[in-house]
Amino acid sequence: MPNIKSAKKRMELNRVERSRNRETRSKIRTAIRRVREATSAEQADEHRREAVALIDRAAVRRILHPNKAGRIKAQLDRVVRAAR
Question: What domains, with CATH codes, occur in the chain?
Answer without folding.
Answer: 5-83 (1.20.58.110)
